[in-house]
Design a protein that fits this description.
- GO terms for molecular function: oxidoreductase activity.
- InterPro entries: NAD(P)-bd_dom_sf, SDR_fam.
- About 45% of the residues lie in helices and about 10% in strands.
- By secondary structure, it is of the alpha/beta class.
- α4 packs parallel to α5, α5 runs parallel beside α6 and α6 crosses α10.
């Protein structure tokens, strides 16, 4: 009995002091860098981490383009950010990452109306659920939105990022990427799974592999690309999971809602590593890295495989018709 109690105590202490801080990505960023004269795009800036990061960058004086699928929610978020920061250079723009047409229209609009792009934050995403849905272009929607949508957007804006260098690309990923050890290249954009988080995990490791290969292709341009694990955050991360079907899936979702409530960060803390990646001077020449808890960290071995990263990049180019 005593032995069992000791084991349970050791596990509990380990979870509290090591796993939970790592998984939640808890950190505070205290940098005071100004962004006056800089232009930033934040996808999915209508809520959660995206909205909080957009507000932080606006507070620093940046011109912030909030790129969202729902213009109603985007306009409301922009109004909030303007009121909080007194920065009138915060703009709402239509962007549906599940539509290649919408992405191309947004990129063209941006090039027609803006003179520079200093920071691109690929934040928007679809989370875990055990029901597969399709994007407008027929892709499984987690891979289609979380990776391929941002992949196309980034590539369409690379010329402006290069012209504005030094500039930065920040792609949000997740610690859950460790559960993926095979991207299933035969069905990259249409992998089917009954597991709630399988396709989400695949899209999140794709984010890391994308910046790994992209950083090599951008070497010497003054443009950096890094992936960020924001931690376990009490935002709308579980919105997709609520669309799951079946008793086990819905029970798991309710359980995770409790976990998020007990140990998850609020949106402000969840946005800290994103802001760190976007503005910290020490990262000006750092590229192709995985960032967590406001520092450089190490992703899974599969996420560090350069051959896999190149294969993913080349296949993604074909899928989005670049």
């Amino acid at each position: 009995m005593l032995k069992t109690a000791i084991i349970v105590s050791v596990i509990g202490i380990g979870l509290y002091y090591f796993f939970i801080p790592f998984a939640t990505g808890s950190c505070e960023y205290y940098g005071k860098e100004r962004l006056d004269g800089k232009t930033v795009i934040v996808t999915g800036a209508n809520t959660g981490i995206g909205k909080t990061a957009a507000a932080d960058l606006a507070q620093r004086g940046a011109r912030v383009i909030c790129a969202c699928r729902s213009m109603e929610r985007c306009n409301a978020a922009v109004a909030d950010i303007k009121r909080e920061t007194n920065n009138v250079q915060v703009v709402a723009a239509k962007l549906d990452l599940g539509s290649m047409k919408s992405i191309r229209e947004f990129a063209q609009m941006f090039k027609n109306t803006e003179k520079r792009l200093d920071i691109l934050i690929n934040n928007a995403g679809i989370g875990c659920r055990n029901v597969d849905k399709k994007t407008e272009d027929g892709f499984e929607d987690r891979m289609g939105v979380n990776h391929l949508g941002h992949f196309l957007l980034t590539n369409l804006l690379l010329d402006m990022l290069k012209q504005s260098q030094p500039s930065r690309i920040v792609c949000l990923t997740s610690l859950i990427h460790w559960t993926t050890t095979d991207l299933d290249f035969d069905n990259l954009a249409n992998h089917t799974s009954t597991s709630s988080c399988d396709n989400y995990s695949r899209s999140k490791i794709a984010n890391i592999l994308f910046v790994l290969e992209l950083s090599k292709r951008l070497k010497g341009t003054g443009v950096t690309a890094n992936a960020v694990h924001p931690g376990l955050v009490q935002t709308e991360t579980l919105r997709s999971a609520r669309e799951s079907e079946g008793f086990l899936a819905t029970s798991y979702t309710k359980f995770m809602e409790v976990v998020f409530l007990l140990v998850g960060n609020d949106a402000r803390r969840g946005a800290q590593t994103t802001v760190y990646a976007a503005v910290d001077p020490s990262l000006e020449n750092v590229s192709g890295q995985f960032l967590a808890r406001c520092k450089i960290d190490t992703p899974s071995p599969y996420a560090r495989d350069e051959a896999v990263a190149k294969k993913l990049y080349d296949m993604s180019l074909k899928l989005v018709n670049l």
